[in-house]
Amino acid sequence: xxxxxxxxxxxxxxxxxxxxxxxxxxxxxxxxxxxxxxxxxxxxxxxxxxxxxxxxxxxxxxxxxxxxxxx
Length: 71
Ligand SMILES: [Zn+2]
Fold this sequence. Notes:
By secondary structure, the protein is mostly beta strands. Helix content is about 0%, strand content about 40%. The site of zinc ion (ZN) has 9 residues, from loops. Zinc ion binds near residues 29, 31, 36, 55 and 56.
């Protein structure tokens, strides 16, 4: 199998039907207060789909404007 000649871009993934997520780091975390929360945006829907804090390992998803912790 030959690999493709390296001009792929992350955005090309969304054309295949997979969900491409855009990560926006350094949001303040609602649990630990550290600016370590990464918010993930859906490339297609242009809306927030989830968040993860690298500091306290909080995982959460968005329901509308509300951030709902997972677990
Ligand atoms: Zn946190």
